[in-house]
Design goal:
Elements lengths: L2 H6 L3 E14 L8 H4 L7 E7 L2 E5 L10 E13 L2 E9 L4 E10 L9 E9 L4 E14 L18 E10 L25 H11 L3 E6 L22 H10 L3 E7 L17 H8 L5 E5 L9 H9 L6 E7 L7 E8 L45 E2 L1 E6 L1 H17 L31 E10 L14 E3 L2 E5 H12 L3 E6 L21 H14 L5 E5 L11 H27 L10 E9 L17 H8 L1 E3 L1 E2 L2 E5 L3 E5 L5 H4 L6 E7 L5 E2 L2 E2 L2 H13 L13 H19 L10 E3 L2 E3 L5 E3 L29
């Protein structure tokens, strides 16, 4: 019997598991070492609860108490097969911890959804002697039993807010290209492209009270406006623009992530965040710039050192004031949010030029982190795919409050430097006020991954947060991903920088530390749709490989984790198809893609100098192809709901206690439908995005859940793979291709035949390799 056969026989917990860890009594004292006796130390107890071998929660520790009371409540989405809920009581030590005792609760008691509460014996020692007991209440709420049929979270720190206006952006700049011909707006008019950095520049210029900027990286030397528009807006340099606005009396606050390697040493500048450079640039000016680490309060500071070195502040927002637009003379708030940092290398268009813009719109902003030996004089530049949004209305206030909560918590000395939002100057209840909003006004909810170590949190909202070691922690991005997957009807489109997780369900390497349930939820959704005889498809677009040298140890390990994730998903789908006696292929329900650019000799300017012999730059000059780096953090469900933000699909972004993240999730409740297809702004944007990726509009793209659409996407992407891998470089407007792995009817995932078992123009294996040396939490 196989591993999966064994698991299929176990109880399946699918829904929300609510756990109340109440108290314990008469625990054994494990603090009996000679150095503890004189201080009267006793067990410093905390609780870890796992489903099978998958940890779900960790309580706070109660010092020196054999009868500890935690009274901590947890609400956890689960999609697990396990025989028992394992409760471990552990004793926190000066370094590490040790086991006090355990108890097991059979999952058979939980699957019917009835509450299970009681005092459970604590088993200690190798003989399983009983010493003490623990009081716990557990209840499984199966899918649907909590009324989770909404497009929003009902138990979230930030509530969904109606009457917003949202603008969706692909890339920093999107010209009105021929690939969009045929795409329509919700009212039937031709699709009009949106211009992210130009809108950002205008918003900053028009601000009169405040401008707040935060990002993974903020760079002062780039220009927001490029090309012909720069003739009309010549003052768009980020550093000079923010200094000018501050000198005019606008409160300009910039909060960068303090990236530890830039504090000196051999790795300085390795991530290219410019944090120290940006801080020094604004030092002594009217701009208030603070450089804050991803901090953590921990025993002896050891955990804090690890967190500050490994994890990041990854949010990207800009908040400005703007005229309320209602004739009152008051101000409102507007906010940009998404995946695009205001830093070097992020300016791109859906054309993704490799060479021809080096001396024009990318002059002074050359960025290349994937191909060795490149310079601004040789090329190629690194193409960059990303998604962003502008929010006007009540949710813009929430985005402002996130910035303020982070600023207040990590900048005690500068707390009073934020602008006070008074009723005399601001209408904070201002709705979108966009006449004739196409598709109707938006309902938008702010979603985060963040802990109380990084932001001041309202006591009134703590009931909607989980905790780890007693530290309040928000994981609403992950929970909303799960909510949307569970409620999706026809299709899901994901575009993300990473795609890995649900390690407890992998076929191998299950000890890898990325247990979030997004991938396994997708699998279970597909299986349920198959069982119901309904059509459903999940499209996932990821980078060809992580940014940097794909043969490097970190990149190879990430690739290995992504391979394990795909392998698990396809194998489980295949088993379900076999069980149901269906002859479908697993890729009929799940498909992975990546983006690339292929050019012709005519696309290379004559004035470029030859690259160094034997370099990666020389190889690309010959092949004229390069991956497009997918940095997007996008989910679209049924063309009804969209998530745009900073969170990747990995444990770092979704766990809540690692990288700090922020997303907006929104929908238009009053949009009209053409049959089952909603004809709102989400639909128009997603159709335009696909038209850009697939080389032009096709009416079949209007309904991604249809077999005809899937077949057309397959046809176009496979056509581009042939173009991309051909010996003769030929320009193609198509950018999307199948991810280069084979998937068999039995769900086995393997590499392509040589030479495509390595990525084009590299020596990097497509399936990746496990490092055995990197910190477990670094690449997950």
């Amino acid at each position: 019997m196989s591993l999966l056969d064994d698991e299929d026989s176990l109880p399946f917990l699918h829904g929300t598991l609510k756990i109340h860890v109440i108290e314990a009594a008469d625990l054994p004292d494990t603090d009996t070492a000679f150095f503890s006796i004189d201080r009267g130390d006793a067990t410093d107890a905390f609780v870890i609860i796992s489903l099978g071998e998958t940890p779900l929660l960790k309580t706070a520790y109660i010092p020196n108490n054999l009868n500890p009371r935690w009274n901590e409540k947890f609400s956890l989405p689960v999609c697990h097969r396990a025989s028992s809920l394992k409760v471990m009581i552990r004793d926190r030590e000066h370094v590490g911890d040790q086991l006090v005792g355990t108890c097991l609760i059979s999952t058979e008691e939980l699957v019917d959804g009835e509450p299970v509460e009681g005092w459970y014996d604590v088993l200690v020692g190798a003989g399983g002697d009983v010493q003490g007991s623990i009081h716990i209440m557990v209840q499984l709420f199966p899918i649907g039993s909590l009324g989770e049929d909404n497009n929003y979270l009902t138990d979230c720190y930030f509530e969904p807010k109606a009457d917003n206006h949202v603008v969706l952006y692909m890339n920093a700049e999107t010209p009105q290209l021929p690939v969009f011909d045929g795409v329509t707006e919700p009212d039937g008019s031709p699709y009009s492209t949106t211009r992210c950095w130009l809108d950002t520049y205008r918003a900053i210029c028009n601000a009169e009270k405040l401008i707040y900027v935060t990002g993974w990286s903020v760079y002062t030397k780039i220009n927001l406006v490029r090309g012909d528009d720069a003739l009309y807006y010549p003052d768009s340099n980020v550093g000079e623009l923010l200094k000018r606005k501050a000198s005019e009396g606008v409160r300009v606050c910039v909060m960068t992530w303090n990236e530890k390697s830039n504090d000196g040493g051999m790795l300085e500048g390795v991530l290219g965040t410019h944090d120290e450079e940006t801080f020094n640039y604004f030092n002594g000016t009217d701009v208030i710039c603070t450089n804050v680490p991803r901090s953590k309060s921990s025993w002896l500071g050891l955990g804090g050192q690890f967190v500050g070195s490994i994890y990041t502040h990854h949010q990207k927002t800009i908040i400005c004031d703007a005229d309320a637009g209602d004739g009152s003379g008051l101000k409102r708030l507007i906010a940009f949010i998404g995946g695009i940092d205001i830093t070097d290398g992020r300016y791109d268009t859906p054309e993704f030029h490799l060479f021809k813009t080096l001396s024009t719109v990318h002059s002074g902003d050359f960025y290349q982190n994937c191909t060795v030996g490149t310079t601004s004089e040789t090329g190629p530049r690194q193409p960059w795919q990303d998604i962003h949004a502008l929010v006007m209305g009540p949710t813009a206030v929430d985005i402002h409050d996130n910035f303020a909560d982070r600023w207040w918590h990590q900048n005690l000395r500068l707390r009073d430097s934020l602008y006070r939002l008074s009723d005399e100057e601001f209408n904070l209840d201002c709705t979108s006020l966009v006449p004739g909003e196409m598709g109707g006004p938006w309902t938008v909810q702010l979603l985060r991954s963040i802990t109380s170590d990084s932001a001041a949190l309202s006591q009134d909202r703590l009931e909607f947060l989980n905790r780890k070691y007693g530290c309040p922690m928000e994981d609403s991005i992950m929970r909303q991903y799960v909510n949307l997957i569970r409620n999706a009807k026809s299709f899901i489109y994901i575009e993300n920088q990473y795609f890995l997780g649900s390690t407890f369900a992998w076929l191998e390497d299950r000890e890898t530390n990325s247990p979030h349930i997004v991938p396994i939820e997708i699998v279970e959704k597909i299986i349920k749709k198959v069982e119901a005889g309904e059509r459903f498809h999940v499209y996932v677009t990821i980078p060809m490989y992580p940014e940097g040298d794909p043969a490097s140890i970190p990149s190879q390990e990430i690739l290995r984790w992504q391979f394990r994730t795909q392998e698990m998903m396809y194998k489980r789908i295949s088993r379900a198809l076999e069980r149901l006696g269906l002859d479908n292929h697993p890729k009929d329900f799940l498909s992975f893609y990546c983006l690339g650019k292929r050019e012709s000799a005519e696309d290379v300017p004559d004035d470029l100098i030859p690259p160094a012999p034997g370099s990666g730059a020389e190889m690309v000059r010959y092949t004229l192809r390069h991956p497009i780096y997918v940095h997007s953090k996008l989910l679209v469900a049924d063309d009804e709901y969209i998530i745009v933000g900073s969170a990747n699909i990995n444990q770092r972004s979704l766990g809540g206690n690692r990288d700090s993240e922020i997303c907006m999730g929104g929908f238009q409740p009053n949009c009209t439908y053409d049959g089952a297809v909603p004809m709102g702004a989400v639909h128009s944007f997603r159709t335009a995005l696909w038209s850009a990726h697939l080389g032009g509009y096709d009416p079949v793209y209007e309904d991604p859940g249809s077999p005809e659409c899937l077949e057309r996407v397959r046809e176009v992407t496979e056509q581009f793979w042939e173009i991309y891998t051909d010996d003769e470089p030929v320009f193609s407007p198509i950018h999307m291709m199948p991810y280069p792995l084979n998937v068999s009817e039995t769900g086995d995932v393997t590499v392509l035949d040589s030479p495509w078992d390595t990525f084009p123009d590299t020596i990097a294996p497509v399936a990746g390799t496990k490092s055995w040396s990197l910190p477990a939490k670094l690449t997950t």
